Amino acid sequence: MQVEGNWCVGGMEGECREMRAEWVLKLMMKSGKTLLLLLCLKLLCCAVIAAPQTCPANNVDNCGDSDGWEGEFFPGIPKIKYEGPSTKNPLSFKWYNAEEEILGKKMKDWLRFSVAFWHTFRGTGADPFGAPTKYWPWEDGTNSLNMAKRRMRANFEFISKLGVYFWCFHDRDIAPDGKTLEESNANLDEVVALAKELQTQAKKRVLWGTAQLFVHPRYMHGAATSSELEVYAYAAAQVKKAMEVTHYLGGENYVFWGGREGYQSLLNTDMERELNHLARFLEAAVAYKKKIGFNGTLLIEPKPQEPTKHQYDWDAATSANFLRKYGLTGEFKLNIECNHATLSGHSCHHELETARINGLLGNIDANTGDPQVGWDTDQFLVDIQEATLIMLSVVRNGGLAPGGFNFDAKLRRESIDVEDLFIAHIVGMDTLARGLRNAAKLIENGSLAELVRKRYQSFDTEIGAQIEAGKADFEMLEKKVKEWGEPKVASAKQELAEMILQSVL
Ligand SMILES: [Mn+2]
Q1: How much distance in Å is there from the Cα of 458 to the middle of ligand 1?
Q2: Res. 283: pLDDT tops 80
Q3: According to the model, what pLDDT value does residue 16 have?
Q4: pTM across the whole model
Q5: Can you tell me which family this protein belongs to (predicted)?
């Protein structure tokens, strides 16, 4: 018997056929009306495709077998080791050597890598045109509590084998949504208790936690900027809980990505009122953080569009201005995502430098977009030049701690092997490690710093010092112009700077 649906593909055929047969048999014994049964099966399968989150947390029987998992989740995949640039082994590091010192610090301390639970363990490969393509062997097609726990165990085996110290999560991605806030909180508590046990055993930590305030229909107008008071309150309750569990898991940061905080049209939007509400929401988050003794850094993650036409946290400069206006700069830093940087028309390097010079660089969501594609593709970063520029900013910032590099990146829809999860993270880690090595070469070589120093040397003078100290008035400068005549202007040496950068790649 053929059952259409999205439960089973590719390598899972064997297990899936068994699952289908068992399921069909159970149902046939109950009803005996084969035609009706087939119709129900068809409808059920369609429901699974359309809304994978509709399977209730407590409804295990109707949503597949959610018993424990025997043995390893990633059998045959060893702990990933550094083998150097000449190795041909895809399951090894070519450039990332965790314990090696670069510029006086271990690579693992410069890079503080983190796995993003939502992409790695909840990413299905679905897109607006097509169904999921990824069916990891440990998934049973449900969103049950048992499945959430099994997934959490897979997460810790993955980060342990990968040799990463941190992980990041959204509340609703690690535990299923309940019918009420109380039920959702209870689900979260149960999964978080297991996560705490597993991360203590594995000696891992949470880089940051966050609340998912954009999937549920209640958040269609936004969360803190929703036009509905009850939604604002619900979001506050959800963030309160997400901060509590992040604190419980020893999280070093807490992130606010603006989800649907933005607008689709200014005609029906009171932008001033919405931004005031957002500021009040963030003030309340600061107050609650202090109340529960959570010392993690609060981070705002800029993004210009998607899902709204105009997100309020457009870019680093806009976010910095928002924080200043509402007196929040001392309480927040920025989490810069490279793909969001390019969506806003900047380079990742520009956004990092804008955050850094404003004292706001807190964390990096390490990913990249595609220059031919206009949306947020969340790809693993593989561009060595981009990685070198990123690491130049990170080194200038003295590192990112307590922040780090979160791989907010997903496999392409067409990459469907379990080992692809490892390969993608390995190449992302190696690219940034190579960027760190190159940045160190640039800094130790000194030619680029010298080029920049020379470019501004006219200000290293008595009058220059007066200007920079705010002591040069227009009358004095006019007098100097009459004395000096036409200014002599030097070359910017851009091509030489590019040549120097090329020499370390
Ligand atoms: Mn993104």
Answers
A1: 42
A2: yes
A3: 37
A4: 0.87
A5: Belongs to the xylose isomerase family.
The residues, ordered by sequence, that sit 6+ positions from 249 with a Cβ below 8 Å of its Cβ are 192, 195, 196, 199, 205, 206, 209
The closest alpha carbon to 148, from 175, 123, 186, belongs to: 175
The C-alpha atoms of residue 380 and residue 366 are separated, in whole angstroms, by: 7
Q: b or e along 277-300 (b: 16 or more beta carbons within 10 Å of the residue's beta carbon)?
A: bbbebbeebeeebeeeebebbbbb
Cα(409) to centroid(ligand 1), Å: 7
User: Mean per-residue pLDDT for 253-279?
Assistant: 98
Rounded average pLDDT over 193-211:
98
Hey, what's the torsion of the CAs at 385, 422, 407, 110, to 10 degrees? -70
468-505: per-residue pLDDT in tens?
Answer: 999 999 999 999 999 999 999 999 999 999 999 999 99
Distance CA 482, CA 485 (A): 6
Q: Does residue 49 have a pLDDT over 70? A: no
Cβ atoms 9, 20 nearer than 8 A: no
| List of E strands, 264-303 | 297-301
Q: Whose structure tokens read 């593909």?
A: 9
Instruction: Output phi, psi for 407, to 5 deg.
Output: -80, 80
**pLDDT for 374:** 85
Task: Give CA torsion, residues 273, 274, 279, 285, to 10 deg.
Answer: 130
Closest CA to 95 of 378, 438, 349: 438
Average model confidence (pLDDT) across the chain: 90
Q: What percent of the chain has pLDDT above 90?
A: 86
114, two tokens: 């983190």
Residue with tokens 């790649």: 505
Whether residue 44 is predicted with pLDDT greater than 60 in this model: the reply is no
In the structure encoding, which two tokens stand for residue 472, read together? 């040069």
CA dihedral 463, 464, 470, 474 (to 10 degrees): 60
Contacts with 444 (C-beta within 8 Å, 6 or more apart), sequence order: none
Residues 120 and 411: their CA atoms lie apart, in Å, by 8
CA dist 74 and 93 (Å) reads: 18
CA of 337 to the centre of ligand 1 (A): 7
Q: How remote is the C-alpha of 283 from its chain's centroid?
A: 23
> Which of 170, 247, 340, 346 is labelled catalytic?
170
Residue 170 designated active-site: yes
Mean pLDDT of 301-329: 98
Could you tell me the domains of the chain? 81-445 (3.20.20.150), 447-504 (no CATH)
246 neighbors 254 (Cβ within 8 angstroms):
yes
- In which band, very low, low, confident or very high, does the pLDDT at 112 lie, cut at 50, 70 and 90? very high
Cα(131) to centroid(ligand 1), Å:
20
User: What is the 467 CA–ligand 1 centroid distance (Å)?
Assistant: 42
pLDDT at 435: 98
Distance 365 CA to ligand 1 centre (A): 8
